[in-house]
Amino acid sequence: MLIDQRKLPEVTEYFDATAFDDMLFAIEEMVVRGAPSIGVAAAYGLAWEAERLTRNTDPAHFLETLEDRAKRLKATRPTAVNLAWAVDLMIREAHMLFERLNAGASRRDLEQVAIELKKLAVEILNEHIEINKRLSDFGAALVADKAQILTHCNAGSLAACGWGTALGVIRSAFIQGRQPTVLVDETRPRQQGARLTMWELSQDNIPATLVCESMAGHLMQSGKVNMVIVGADRIARNGDTANKIGTYNLAVLAKYHDIPFYVAAPLSTFDADLESGACIPIEHRSEAEVTSMAGVQLTVSGARAYNPAFDVTPADLITAIITEAGILRRPFKESIQSALGLSG
Amino acid sequence: MLIDQRKLPEVTEYFDATAFDDMLFAIEEMVVRGAPSIGVAAAYGLAWEAERLTRNTDPAHFLETLEDRAKRLKATRPTAVNLAWAVDLMIREAHMLFERLNAGASRRDLEQVAIELKKLAVEILNEHIEINKRLSDFGAALVADKAQILTHCNAGSLAACGWGTALGVIRSAFIQGRQPTVLVDETRPRQQGARLTMWELSQDNIPATLVCESMAGHLMQSGKVNMVIVGADRIARNGDTANKIGTYNLAVLAKYHDIPFYVAAPLSTFDADLESGACIPIEHRSEAEVTSMAGVQLTVSGARAYNPAFDVTPADLITAIITEAGILRRPFKESIQSALGLSG
Fold first, then answer.
1. pLDDT surpassing 80 at residue B141
2. What is the second-level CATH architecture of the domain B135-340?
3. What span, in angstroms and rounded, lies between the C-alpha atoms of A293 and A290?
4. Label partner for B308 (CA 20 to 30 A): which of A64, A234, A269, B85?
5. Rounded Cα–Cα distance for residues B254 and A179 (Å)
6. Per the confidence metrics, is the pTM higher than 0.90?
């Protein structure tokens, strides 16, 4: 059961995504969104599907069918790496469990595999929440008393399956008594800031003010922003960061105004295979998301629109990356390498 | 009769603003908007009011009453200087006409004054259109073949009572065969780009793509923007420019990406009394413009929002200012002084 993030904040409605196609739909249509959350959702989707396959599929085709499902999940949203990360983890586990079986697995064997995969999905979820809290504690140390923090999109408990990354840092700072106030970018075209971040902050009674993306420069120019914190969908080995469209604007503006710009993300957001952000695939979504809103046409009929869902912020605009392994600073290539335990 | 800009592009409806209070409402509620257009609308409002006063007011109180109306008009929208400019021009003319009369003006004298004021309003309108075309021709010379131009808000014929300033430049370049394509910022929170600029461009068959403000950096980073052109609501003597909120973001982003950033505005937009942009009053509008759209609530109920309608772009981010007196370049203090015919 997922909170239907398309319907917040008007109603808190749940979406039943135990059937695999429902989970595919939920990820594609953003019933569930946020890089860590879609990773965990995909893991659950695969676990439930594995259970269903134990009843309906020839054991000889079990792995192959599960891999087909994994491929379909990974194709839904190409930018966030956590989706691929969680799916690959599940598939690797399935392979490992199969290798332990004798040739010709019985249906009972499959049931055991499905149970183990469910355990792994639950583990991924619980570990994510732990990790969020750990990185939020590191990040909270960067928040000055009464800091005015600008954030973009939603990197809270909805996006990160509990607690949150960027919003987790703010939440932890608030609990520690730092009295932060938050400026929330509405985040066009899907209003994740207006709908989701404002909702989470109001649930926690953290003072928040909704702003439009167009106001960021003016807010910084008039001294109303002390720091910017955002989440991430994929981080390359050199620190280049893909995140919700509009993040790069904020990074350039923060640099120009000499305001610290932080990215908060778990290590599972890093893509060790990518040297730099240049190769991060950018998802393009439907033009209708820009030309209409809540069923209301916003422009002339037949208008063309452009709708990249993410942008890439080069590492040199990022002050630090807040992870569960601590605050990573420049030079990022070295600090990321060490946090991920990679060899040079 | 004004085109009701609140209702475009769904319907082309006219708003009858011959009664003075209707014109006040029209300017305040943005039935008519755009710095030059509200100046001309205010001049017409005063001219019609003068005619009404010839029938209803003691000639001894005529000027005083007209000045009260002028004050109320100027209080509606504080940022654009054209409103004050046009209103002051009308009031100065009324004073001059009165001075020519013998003491104790007759009702017939008043009628003559009202006729002259109407003539002046028509002149202001016609001159604005002429000026727009002149500055657009200067500006078109800056547009390269097949240039991809990013613009913000609406600085077209709706904003500038015919032809347009920023959009006038694009229109003239298009007519001259330069084949520009336009990226149109939707311009939150009132969608003037989505509603008005997209409408004007589609009327003229100029290729246009709607984008969100959040996409500007990404568009520039991916080489999709060759130049930025915007209008202006008020320009100080040093070139600092107030324009629709979000303009300053674009100027910083353009500077960072080494993309030329042009302001197009008639000389009536310059405020010779202002040394710099620091003193330009910024209009703040209702929070509801940010928290809801087309009657749909966009965020949690009771949410606070911030809604400055304009921002100020410092002169050092502006490549050139396109006026009817030619292209003004740095150092702006000198080029503006010379264009306005001011002494140092």
1. yes
2. 3-Layer(aba) Sandwich (3.40)
3. 7
4. B85
5. 35
6. yes
What per-residue confidence (pLDDT) applies to B183?
A: 98
Active site residue B233: yes
- Cβ atoms of B198 and B167 within 8 Å: the answer is no
DSSP string covering A256-306: HTT--EEEE--GGGB-TT-SSGGGPPPPB--THHHHEETTEE-S-TT-EE-
B102 residue type, one letter: N
pLDDT tens-digit readout, A121-176: 999 999 999 999 999 999 999 999 999 999 999 999 999 888 999 999 999 999 99
Contact A311 B218 (CB under 8 A): yes
| Strand (E) or helix (H) holding B46 | helix B35-56
Residue A183 three-state SS: strand
Strands (E), B119-205: 148-151, 181-185
Q: What stretches in chain A show pLDDT beneath 50?
A: none
CATH topology for A2-134 is Four Helix Bundle (Hemerythrin (Met), subunit A) (1.20.120)
CB atoms within 10 A of CB A81: 25
Angstroms from A72 CA to nearest CA on chain B: 28
Distance between CA atoms of B39 and B44, rounded to whole angstroms? 9
This model of the complex carries an ipTM of 0.92
CB within 8 Å of B227: residues ≥ 6 apart: B142, B143, B144, B147, B148, B149, B150, B259, B260, B261, B262
SS3 B15: strand
Kindly report, as residue ranges, where domains of CATH 1.20.120.420 are found in chain B. 2-134
Q: How are beta strands B2-3 and B14-15 bridged, if at all?
A: antiparallel
B-chain residues within 8 Å CB-CB of A290? 186, 210-212
Stronger pLDDT, A199 or B104, i.e. the higher one: A199
Which chain B residues are closer than 8 Å to A216 by Cβ?
A: 249
Q: DSSP class of residue B163?
A: S
